[in-house]
Design a protein that fits this description.
alpha/beta
Length: about 375
Amino acid sequence: VRDMSKLPHVGTTIFTTMSKMATDHQAINLSQGFPNFPVDAKLVSLLQETALENAHQYVPMSGYAGLLEEIATLTMQSYHRSVNPETEVLVTAGATQGIFTTIQALVHAGENVVILDPAYDCYAPAVLLAGAEPIHVNMLPDFTPDWEKINQAVNAKTALIIVNNPHNPSGKILQESDLLALENLLERHPQLILLSDEVYEYITFEQKHISANTRSALLDRTIVVSSFGKTFHITGWKIGYLIAPEKYMREIKKVHQFLVFCVNSVAQISLAKYLKEIDVQQLGRFYQAKRDYFQDLMKKSRFELLPSEGSYFQTARFSSISTESDTVFVEKLVKEHGVAAIPFSAFYQDHFDQQIIRFCFAKDNETLEKAAQKLCQI
C-alpha cells in the first residue's frame, strides 16, 4: 500500500498540544507565544476605517504598494538599509508562509539545510517537503551557536542555513562574533544562502540585536523574515514580510503567487496607514517592563531563570524542583499547578533535555501575577 504521508514523523505541534491541555485543565496559558492584552486602539480604528473603504479586492501579488513603501522606509530607519519596494520586498501570510515559500523556491531535492536546535518547528517540515534533508546542529548549552559543529555540518550540498535572531525559544540574541562567523561561513561556501528569521527584531532589551539587514557582507546572500504579527501583537492577522535580493525574490514570488497569490487587502492597507503613525522602537521598552515584572514575581520561586535578551519568552530550569523529564514536568505543571509552559526538548530533533521550559510573558499583569503565584508555590 502506498504510504500517503509526506511528513510521517510530524504530529500535532507542541504549541497546539499545550494550549489544548491548558484549556482542558483551565490552566493559565503561558505556553503559546501570543499576547492576551488589547492591540493598539489606533490600529483598530484604522482597520474599521479601511473596512469602509474600497479595500476588499486583490492587491498586487507582492503586496499593497503603500505597505511595500512603508516597509522600505522602516528598513531604512531601523537598519540604514535601502531596499527597492518593488523588487526586494514581499508581504506574506505570516512569517511561517514566508519561510515555507523561501524554502520551496530556493532549496532543491537532494540538497540539505542546516537548522540550529533548539529550533522553531516550522523549518524542518518545509525542508522535507522540498525533498531536501534537514541537518540539525545543537547549540551550546547556553544557546549560543556551536560554530565548530556548524562548519563541520555545511558541505557542497548545503543550500541554506536558517538562523533565528532574537532566538525562539531561548530569548538569546547573536553577538558580533556570531555574525562574523556567519559571514566567514558564507564566504567559504559560495552556494550557501542565509535565511535570517528575525520576527522578534523589535523586541530586544539591554542590547539591540544585530540584524542581517545591517551586514554588507550578507546582504546579497540573505533572506530576512519579519513579522507584523509579533511586532504589533496582532498574531491572528498573519502578516509578515520578506526582504531579499531580487535574484532570490524573483524565485520566491513564483512560489508565492501559486501558494496564496496575495495577502489580505484590508489588513495590508491598515498597516500601511499605521506605520506612518507609530514608532516601533518603543516596543522593546514595553516588553522589557513585562520581562522585568515577571522576573521580579518569580524571585521567590525555585525555578532558575535564564537570560532573556529578546523575544517575549522567559526560560527557566527546574532541576532544583524535579528530576523528571521536561515533558513530564510540563504535563504535571498544567494538571497539578494550573500553569502551561513549553518543554525545551520539543525544539530539538534529538529531544535533548536540559530540564528547561519556556514561559511567554506577553500577558497582562494580572495573568502574570496569578501564574507566578502558582509557580512560587511549587
